[in-house]
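fold-stage: in
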Amino acid sequence: MLQPGTLALALVLFGAGAGAQPSLGPALRKRSLTLTSGPSEPLPEVRGAQGVGITFHFDGPILEESVKVDEDRVRVVDVGKRSLLVEPLTAPRADAPTQVSVRYADGEPRRATFAIVPHPSEVDTWVEVTRPPQPPGEACQARLDALNARCDVRSPTAFRRSGLLNHQGIQVRTFKRGEDNSAGDFVVFGGVSFLGQEWALVEVNLRNEGGKPRAPRVTALKGQDGQPVLVRSVTEEPKELSPGQRGTVWIETEVPPASAGVGFTLEVSEPDGRSLQVFSVELPPRTQEGKR
């Protein structure tokens, strides 16, 4: 039987030994998260701890030079083609989360941003990052808009509107106010045409002389032989003309054959179905095919 003094010593030693046992740390986790789809939504949260690395693995290539962190609170350990390893240098704070951000190489979204927050029992060491799915219609429209923008920048219409296409180096012909055989609200008060090696561009100046807004719409451009010219694009500025307002329409076409002549008929439709026939739209004369 232990003496009282011996028992007290044993309890002290047992208590000291128990206190020296290592405490269990937070559980290390792997998980997936989806980026927010808009600036009004809260940032996706990543659970972190001081001195524990967090690896972000992205669903697309990222730009190394675009990584942003608070260098006093987070250290960037490594940046890969699709991964980012960071280490919190201080304990994350719930009232002031540490932010980490990076840009995708393709620019969508413009910047992926995360908030590192504390958690009492878990730490994220591997995070699979995915972007929100884009609706098929929006993806197709975005691609179409990009292609249209590229085509527009390189087109003769864009050159003319930007002032890069002038009366030198290209065959040019101006024409005065044209006559019409209908009682439409639009009046043509002149224009200019350009003829390149593989394209033609007609610039028509219109005025709305009606009593309400009208939106000019080109329906056809025909030569003296009655054959329509293949139209590549039509651009109106503005899209709708208020009463008394002037506007411009650019009609970009293929090069008409020499048999089409010089004078052309331009048909402009109105929202109510009436049409205006303009007979004095002209193009510079073409040479016979095979001699250009």
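fold-stage: in (second)
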Amino acid sequence: MGYGLAVLVLGFARGLRAQGTSLLRFRPLARVVAVPLEDMTTRWRARPFVADGMTLDTAATPNQPIRITGMLVRTEAGDSTPERFQAVCLRCPHEGCDVDLVRDPKTLPPDIIAEVGHPLTEPVYVCPCHNSTFMVETGERLAGPAPRGLYRFRVTSVTTAAVEIGEVEEDVLLFV
């Protein structure tokens, strides 16, 4: 019976992980951020941006305007659908340092590679304060003391002119 319960819990946990961002709660930004589509033509092309939001009612300082720095990256080649782009907050969830985009993982120090536990072949975000490392494709934490992955923005639309970022993960409106 204990084995059956363990299998059930493991299956449930895998299901939650597979759902990924569907479990995250997003809130609208004060205004949509538009990044020119012509700046995002190839895979791993990145563009920083600044978004305006409003702290939540339950934040330490409720209903206050805030600015959130982010990075938009084209993670897949092909058509220009929202799924081909990823946008994350550049503030590390550990102690609030701004993370850096490392385009060539071969330039990472050996101690970061050792902590990740496997060779990296694609760009990553690295926090320069304590070496928390995050996947560019999802913002997921790979290593380091950060308690979670990077806070995410939602690409809400792609037009012929721009990639539009219209929402941010709700938790960033509590902690930034």
